[in-house]
């Protein structure tokens, strides 16, 4: 089993970060750059930064800001929001992004995923899927920040994105977003069993146990969280220690590595 990653999610709206519940992101969290600097020191494996308004306004992805953020980001950075063309991807990668997250545009132009994968490699493409439960064992994909029902079943769409070249899937349960009540384990297991690429669990993490369950019960390869890290005392390093204690392979947090070195 590969090492499981802990990934904070940063939702970028105009001039700063926001968070809310069920994709209603109204509560201000703070500026982007200070958050990135803090997470550099908090044992994170990667960061995901998503512009949640770009799709609605038709704005070009802000490669200039990504260039600024990238100067102070020392972990792999995934950037999403408003990506509709491969030239935008190229600008973001040159600016400092390591991966791009594609969501709404893939429904209108599924070939975009394959085009990016062929040009830059599958490892560069994070296919983001936002879903709502439509019935027992049935989840439907939603685009435009969760506002439009695409009519697609999550399992079928995940398989298509994998076939087109996506390197991993960022899977978010819209109803769980920001609730701190736990991931939708049934959803995660449903998708993880259908594809061979890594699935990043997102939406609902509120404690370390939720992350452990997402991996051991859901089959997630990584865990993403926002509110848990913004509004509680829990940390990425603590999440890694909890997963390590549960027998899940993670990149050893600095505090644990230091203790081992002292003991030796």
Shape: globular
CATH structural class: Alpha Beta
Strand-pairing-aware structural class: alpha/beta
CATH architecture: Alpha-Beta Barrel
Rg result: 17 Å
Question: Helix tally?
Answer: 12
Features:
264 residues, alpha/beta, TIM Barrel, disordered C terminus
What features would you describe in this structure?
This protein is an alpha/beta fold. Helices cover 38% and strands 27% of the residues. It has one domain (5-263): TIM Barrel (Alpha-Beta Barrel), CATH 3.20.20.70. The chain has helices at residues 32-40, 54-57, 63-70, 86-95, 104-108, 111-120, 154-164, 185-192, 208-216, 227-231, 236-245, 254-263, and strands at 5-13, 16-21, 24-30, 47-51, 77-80, 99-102, 125-135, 138-143, 148-153, 168-173, 199-202, 222-225. Strands 1-4-5-6-7-10-11-12 form an eight-stranded parallel β-barrel, surrounded by seven helices. A hairpin with a 4-residue loop joins strand 8 and strand 9. The protein is globular, with a radius of gyration of 17 Å.
């Amino acid at each position: 089993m590969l090492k499981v990653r802990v990934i904070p999610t940063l939702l970028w709206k105009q001039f700063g970060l926001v968070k809310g519940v069920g994709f209603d992101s109204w509560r201000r969290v703070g500026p982007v750059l200070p958050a990135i600097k803090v997470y550099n020191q908090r044992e994170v494996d990667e960061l995901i930064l998503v512009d949640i308004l770009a799709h609605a306004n038709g704005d070009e992805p802000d490669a200039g800001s990504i260039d600024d953020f990238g100067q102070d980001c020392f972990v792999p950075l995934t950037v999403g929001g408003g990506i509709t063309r491969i030239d935008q991807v190229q600008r973001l990668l040159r600016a400092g992004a390591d991966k791009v997250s594609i969501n709404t545009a893939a429904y209108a132009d599924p070939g975009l995923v394959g085009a990016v994968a062929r040009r830059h490699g599958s490892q560069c493409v994070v296919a983001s899927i936002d879903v709502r439960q439509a019935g027992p064992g049935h989840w439907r994909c939603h685009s435009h920040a969760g506002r439009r029902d695409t009519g697609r079943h999550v399992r079928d769409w995940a398989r298509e994105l994998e076939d087109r070249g996506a390197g991993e899937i960022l899977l978010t349960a819209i109803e769980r977003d920001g609730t701190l009540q736990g991931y939708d384990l049934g959803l995660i297991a449903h998708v993880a069993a259908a594809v061979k690429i890594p699935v990043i669990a997102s939406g609902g993490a509120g404690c370390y146990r939720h992350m452990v369950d997402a991996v051991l019960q859901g089959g997630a390869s990584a865990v993403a969280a926002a509110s848990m890290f913004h509004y509680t005392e829990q940390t990425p390093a603590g999440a890694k220690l909890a997963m390590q204690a549960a027998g899940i392979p993670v990149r050893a947090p600095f505090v644990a590595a230091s203790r081992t070195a002292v003991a030796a």
